[in-house]
Amino acid sequence: MDFISNPQAYGFITSKVACCGQGPYNGIGLCTPASNLCPNRDVFAFWDPFHPSERANRLIVDTFMIGDSKYMHPMNLSTVLLLDATSRT
């Protein structure tokens, strides 16, 4: 997704450093009480080295639901659900 290659365009400060973790880029291990924690998780694309942040997950879900054909081909999930709903009437 574009928020990884161009995080600033989506309001993130970085996609290379996790909000919570240890070691370089907060990229070692999971988020624990001993981890470094960012002051504002809404501006980080990743919560920990493995999981997108809540805000990044919202962008991903929005792409599945209402995204254009650049990412969702031949149609997004909202269109599929609408087709399913109209076929039952």
UniProtKB/TrEMBL annotation:
InterPro entries hit by this protein: GDSL_Est/Lipase, SGNH_hydro_sf
Keyword Hydrolase among record annotations: yes
GO molecular function, one term: hydrolase activity
Keywords: Hydrolase
The organism's place on the tree of life at top rank: Eukaryota
The protein's name: GDSL esterase/lipase
Species of provenance: Glycine max
